[in-house]
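Give me C-alpha cells for this 265-residue protein.
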Amino acid sequence: MRTAFKIAFSFLIWPMSITAQDHPASGKPALPPQNLTGGQDFAPPSNMTTVTTSSSPAPMPVRVSMQPAPAFLYIRPIKQPPTVPAGYAPAWTIGAGYSVTSLGLPSSSGRAVLSGMNVSVSTDSGKHFGAKLDLGYERAPNVYSSGHPISVLSYLVGPVFYPSNGNSLSTYAHLLFGGARVGGPFPNGIGGLSIGYVHYPAWALGGGAEYRLSPAFGFRVGVDYLRTHFYNSSGAVRAQNDIRIVNSFVYYPGNPIRSRRQSRP
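Here you go.
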C-alpha cells in the first residue's frame, strides 16, 4: 500500500512541477526562442521528419516519402504440365520377335505349323486405352510333303486395352483388323496338288503379358486367335482358324537404357 501511495503522490506532484518550470518569473515577459544558427525560425512541413544529430545542435529537416502499403498481394500460381498417373503403359512401344502359328487347312483336317517374325508398334493414351499396328510373316518349308512352302503375311491394326500396368509386370488385350495373304499348295479334287494364294480380310483377338527388364527394354508374350482364309479341296475360299503365339522384345522410346544410380548420402 505504501508503494501505491508513493506512486499516486508522484503523479500528483509531477504536473505541478512542470507548470512551475514553464511559467516565467512574475513581472518579466517571456522571451521568444532564439535560433542558435542565426537564421529565421520556420516550422517543418507536414511531410518532413526532423532528425537531430549529436554533431549539430540545430534540427535539420529531412524529406521522407511515405507510400501506402497495398491492400492485398496476389500471387499467380505457376501452371504445371499434366502428369500421367504411375502404373499406366508407356506412351510408345516398339516390339520385335519370334512368332509361331498353327494354321488350320480347309482342304484337310490337319494343321500346318508356321514360324516367322512379328513387328508391332503400339501407343497408349494414358487412360488404359491405346492403339496397335501389328505386322507378321510366318512360313512352313514343306507342306503335304510336296517340297513347296506355305506362308502367311498379315497386317493388322486396332485398339488395345491395358487392364493393369505395374512397375514390372503389365497385361494387355487387343482386337485387330486388317488383311492377310496366305499362299502355298493345297489338294485339288483330282488327287493332286495345286498352288495358289488368297488375299482376304483377317482379324485377331488376343492378349498377353509384358515384363519390364529395364527402363528402356522389356519382354512380351502374347497369344492370339487369328482368322484367315485359304482354298479347300474343291478350290473354294474358306476361313481358317489359326492360333498364333508371339514372343518379342520391347523397346520404350524416350527412356534411359540404364537406370540411374542413386547417390549415397
